[in-house]
Amino acid sequence: MSTAALHAEHEGHHHHKESFISKYVFSMDHKMISKQFLITGIIMGIIGMGMSLLFRLQLAWPDEQFGILEMLLGKWAVDGKLDPNFYMGLVTIHGTIMVFYVLTAGLSGTFSNLLIPLQVGARDMASPFLNMLSYWFFFLSSVVLLVSVGVETGPASAGWTVYPPLSALEKAMPGSGLGMTLWLVAIVLFIVSALLGGINYISTVLNMRTKGMSMNRMPLTIWAFFFTAVLGLLSFPVLLGAGLFLIFDRSFGTSFYLSDIYLEGVGALENIGGSPVLYQHLFWFLGHPEVYIILMPALGITSEVISTNARKPIFGYTAMVISLMGISFLSFIVWGHHMFITGMNPFLGSVFMILTLIIAVPSAVKVFNYLTTLWKGNLRFTPAMLFSIGLVSFFISGGVTGIWLGNAAIDIQLHDSYFVVAHFHLVMGSSAIFGMFAGIYHWFPRMYGRMLNNVLGYFHFWITFICAYLVFFPMHFMGLAGVPRRYYMFTLVKDFDVWMDVNKLITIAAIIGGAAQLLFLYNFFYSIFRGKKSEQNPWQSNSLEWSAPVKHIHGNWPGEIPTVYRGPYEYSRPDREEDFFPQYIPDEGQETGTGAPSKTPAPEHKEVAEENAGHSVFFAAIRRVFGLS
Amino acid sequence: MANHSEAAFEQQPMWAGGRSPFNVSYGKLMMWIFLLSDAFTFSSLLVQYGAQRFSNVVTPVTTKWPDPASIFNHFPGLHGIHLPLLFVSVMTFILILSSVTMVLAVEAGHRKAKKEVARYMIYTILGGIAFLSCQAWEWATFIHEGARLNHNFFGITEQGYKHLHSVKFGQHFEWAAGDRTFGPVPFAALFFIVTGFHGFHVFSGVVINVIVYIMTRRGVFERRGHYEMIEKAGLYWHFVDLVWVFVFTFFYLI
């Protein structure tokens, strides 16, 4: 088809009258959809964090009676003591909400939607309609999941990984009943949402970049969202397949995941011949890429925020892209490290172990690049910058234990202990949520046209940062001592009883950290309406989204979309008076965007372009680091 | 951007932005990406099939995976005659023919020949419906023979093997008592889920094709100036066809 006609058609549907419903509810504007994702994600985050506080209370004071629990939970906390079944339910739903609803949809959904069209210079997503559907499937999925918490037999209680047989046998435990069915329904809806979103993100990045926005001029956020979408697109279908078979096992009498179970020599089930380990393989084929689906957007956001606020080009742009690519590829072939103790062939175990340890390489490249970007930078400690640096800190301290756990020999000892809980809460939980906060503080002006309060932001950061370490760091020691995760109470086991003081410390820190989020919520909702009005480009950033008018308009830019003349990280160029050089401002003497299509722009600045790409910048930076140049 | 002539537009470097690097519309690109994702869904199903099947490779003949040729040997109207895999070959042939007519519809679309597009779309839709009907008959026969989700009575004893191998193509054949026994449980369940999931895809394809056919007849594409929608529906249809080749191979041939 003629591309010109295509574009004419595309511009055509940006000028229609909007009612309240089409503007705020069934909106097809990517900026509104990103706000919808964010608000839903925040609400789910509050619920998920609230649940963690409930079971932390139980772990710290298992014998205490909390009247408030009975008030909140009714029959699940008779006399103010949490019911053991509901404890399992809380742990499961906390994990599900945090992994899928907050850190996948809330993080990637919000910022992919907001930034992809704005940063690549597109009027909207490739298909605004599918984008809208993506949100509404997510919304529906959230509703189903929340409803499942309220059913009579309680929510799904098999852990967020829902391993069979607990998930496949309806009578295995109370939560295996209707709650589990609703969990599966929610996840299927979620997968549909993720696929619709992912297809859109990828085709927008590939097809809709503005003139001059070649792939190697894209901000690292876009690269991160791009690879995240690819991961989601290829791994979620596998969970769909696993879920389909699980549903058949649950409801139609098949036994794909159910092997023969004997009680006192008598077959307890009619099911024979299946294998629960098969489910684990399929689940972790999603589950491991999922970890990077959560983490990579946060890493992308951090790249952008750190570079902008250090007023320096990001160190090793190409290395950053390649390491994202490497992480994405490797994440598909390491799922077995979640299954070292399932009786997997030890040879397979060592293959998975080696591949897992290789992931440390691209991850370390990213960390070193963040540190070297900060090195001798002109640092501006905005709250977003602090959260980004916090992410790097968590990524290091959580990532190092990843190397421990990737080792089959150590993992067999540490598996299912609090060491694992500490590891993943630091490296993907806290890291990703800090990336999300960084994104919110950085792009809040872009979303709402107003600024967040900085002072509240600083308090929010420091309290959250300290509390996160207080909560998760002691868990390493508990895990090394053998304290298992997912236990309802530890007072009955003498060896674990000695950790009660630590458990109390963790819970107190969790409560303080949770309370600190109220600062953020107040700041967020207050600033939407009363915050200081934002300037056009409050952070003096280079990327394209700050060239669009502060007030959101359909189609993002009035008139023509800006042309891009250079990469996004040209900060503090010696030949410029200002310390930034936006992508959309032409070099002197260069023809501006109107008229005939421009040639590939900016060949004049070859040396800068080269510095931004490939190994030359690497050596240049090493020279600079060691003071050789 | 709409002012630029197409020629000037396509002179731009491929990946430099301002144009599609693959010279396709976003819709076609999305269809390709969706198909990639869908391929992973089918792969996950087939991988589970492989895992279940290979975990059932043990020495006693009775627990061997049932031989598809001994089960899918029926043909409508020819009751009791041993015609292994004949019917499913006809099904496959129908589906592949419908892919051919789809190609012809796309080709006619390039020439903007509305009548021809409509004609070939009709053939494609008929092919799809014929395939689905065949599948319905195959399922019904299979269930009638005793296929269930939670057990499998298609295991063959030593005696059954001898009996089966003594029968030639086209001869009369019926199982004798003691020929068959219980086999690996997931056999029929896997068959139903995977061919069912594929059948669901064919059904969706037929619905899409019907919609596209109606749009063709009402001149929507004529007014739009291009028949790209036919191509997108065609991509999906060929994909469903390609998947069938794998399903057919795994469930009937090996």
Structure commentary:
Chain A has 629 residues and is mainly α. Chain A has helices spanning 3-12, 20-25, 30-60, 67-73, 84-120, 128-149, 178-207, 220-251, 276-310, 317-331, 346-374, 383-406, 408-414, 418-448, 454-480, 494-497, 500-530, 606-611, 615-625, and strands spanning 262-263, 266-267. In chain A, helix 3 runs antiparallel to helix 5 (84-120) and helix 14 runs antiparallel to helix 15 (454-480). With 254 residues, chain B is mainly α. Chain B has one domain: Up-down Bundle (Four Helix Bundle (Hemerythrin (Met), subunit A)). Helices cover 65% and strands 2% of the residues of chain B. Chain B starts with 5 loop residues before the first helix and ends with a helix. The mean pLDDT of chain B is 89.
Quick tags:
heterodimer; A: 629 residues; mainly alpha; Cytochrome C Oxidase, Chain A; two-stranded antiparallel ribbon; 19 helices; 63% helix; globular; disordered N terminus; B: 254 residues; Four Helix Bundle (Hemerythrin (Met), subunit A); 2 strands; 2% strand; elongated
Question: Which helices and strands appear, and what pairs or packs with what?
Answer:
The complex is a heterodimer of chains A (629) and B (254).
Chain A: H1 3-12, H2 20-25, H3 30-60, H4 67-73, H5 84-120, H6 128-149, H7 178-207, H8 220-251, E1 262-263, E2 266-267, H9 276-310, H10 317-331, H11 346-374, H12 383-406, H13 408-414, H14 418-448, H15 454-480, H16 494-497, H17 500-530, H18 606-611, H19 615-625
Antiparallel strand pairs in A: 1-2
Helix pairs in contact in A: 3-5, 3-6, 3-17, 5-6, 5-7, 5-8, 5-9, 5-14, 6-7, 7-8, 8-9, 8-10, 9-10, 9-11, 9-12, 9-14, 10-11, 11-12, 12-14, 12-15, 14-15, 15-17
Chain B: H1 6-10, H2 26-54, H3 68-71, H4 86-110, H5 114-144, E1 155-156, H6 158-165, E2 180-181, H7 186-217, H8 220-224, H9 228-253
Antiparallel strand pairs in B: 1-2
Helix pairs in contact in B: 2-7, 2-9, 4-5, 4-9, 5-7, 7-9
